[in-house]
Amino acid sequence: MTTAGNEFAGRVALVTGAARGQGRTHALAFAERGADLVICDRCSDAPGVGYPLGTEEDLAETARLIRALGRKVIAVTADTADRPALEALVARAEAELGGVDVAVANAGVSAMSLITDHDQAVWDDVVDTNLKGVFNTIAACAPGMARRGYGRIVTVSSMLGRTAVPGQAAYCAAKWGVIGMSKSAASELAPQGVTVNVVAPGNIDTPMVRNDNLYRVVRPDLDEPTWDDVAPVLQQNHAVPIAVLDPFDVTRAVLFLADEASTYITGIVVPVDAGAASRTSA
Ligand SMILES: NC(=O)c1ccc[n+]([C@@H]2O[C@H](COP(=O)([O-])OP(=O)(O)OC[C@H]3O[C@@H](n4cnc5c(N)ncnc54)[C@H](O)[C@@H]3O)[C@@H](O)[C@H]2O)c1
Q1: Which of 95, 133, 211, 221 is deepest in the core (most CB within 10 A)?
Q2: Domains plus CATH for the chain?
Q3: 202 in helix, strand or coil?
Q4: Which residues line ligand 1 (CB under 6 A)?
């Protein structure tokens, strides 16, 4: 699916965490394929997260790029942990664009803490965004989709939603939780024509990975680690010898699961992880 068609014409797609990174790539792919967009981002940093998050300028740039493709966009600063804010956004989408057909619960943060000295701020920030935020996105969008008898929900987990590494208790708890929650929602919503599926990315080339904080975590043996020091370590997470995938590699899977034709695919997890899933149990 490399050539943009018009398969989402007449559809409205909501993407959380769309100021930059994978969220922006997903949003622009929907716009290129004919959808109008509803996008949000918290546009502020989080105390437990050791790298800068998206900004108001980033979100405005995503909105500008969507408009430049000739599509409508509602863009708001909203934290996915804030359920009333998401419900207000969906209500606005229903009033102005006719309702949300596709929802991608993409917003996420990464932060590490050892269990022997677990920072409360890390737990709160990671679980609030990566688990509660995904729940809130589903809970805000599902009622309208169920009423209209059509919906495609894609949630974002991680290869760390199916395996675990040291220092990632909060991230793993949230990302494993996304899978269980999504499967439960899928079974509930199946009779209403609403699918719920999960993508589980490997290392993706976004600011979540390309930041000094992660470099120091990955290479604590070096004073000033660089990307060249970190890339060989990250590559070990994958079976295919590549350190990071392009965000659009994940977008391809999101587009497939969001497509009208994916009617009978629900409750599954699609790993886009250069073969990391080949090392986990079924
Ligand atoms: N980059 C990777 O290697 C990788 C791997 C596996 C899974 N993921 C997941 O992919 C998703 C996208 O991450 P990315 O790689 O694009 O990272 P990113 O940091 O580039 O983008 C994430 C965006 O989400 C926004 N955001 C964070 N918390 C939010 C909240 N509570 N409400 C609204 N917006 C919020 C940030 O401001 C940022 O703009 C996340 O769920 C992440 O956990 C990423």
Answers
A1: 133
A2: 12-209+244-274 (3.40.50.720), 213-243 (no CATH)
A3: coil
A4: 16-17, 19-23, 40-42, 53-54, 79-81, 106-110, 129-130, 133, 156, 158, 201, 203-204, 206-209
More confident of the two residues 246 and 4: 246
Continuous H helices in the chain: 21-32, 56-68, 83-97, 120-127, 133-148, 169-189, 212-218, 227-235, 247-258
Q: Look at residues 193, 84, 173, 166 and name the one whose alpha carbon lies nearest to residue 130.
A: 173
pTM of the model: 0.98
The token pair at 77 is 């600063």
Protein residue closest via CA to atom 17 of ligand 1 = 208
Question: 270 near 179, Cβ under 8 Å?
Answer: no
Which residue among 28, 40, 53 has the greatest number of ligand 1 atoms within 8 angstroms of its CB, and so is best to mutate?
Answer: 53
**In the predicted structure, residue 2 carries a pLDDT above the cut 80:** no
Q: Mutate which of 16, 22, 61, 214 to test ligand 1's pocket (most atoms within 8 Å of Cβ)? A: 22
Atom of ligand 1 nearest to the CA of 17: 24
Which amino acid, 139? Answer: A
Residues present in the chain in total? 282
Residue 150: active-site member? no
Kindly report the backbone phi and psi dihedral angles of residue 12, in degrees, each rounded to the nearest multiple of 5, phi listed first: -120, 125
Q: Whose CA is nearest to atom 32 of ligand 1?
A: 79
Q: Return the DSSP state at 80.
A: T
Residue nearest to atom 1 of ligand 1 (CA): 204
Residue 190 DSSP symbol: G
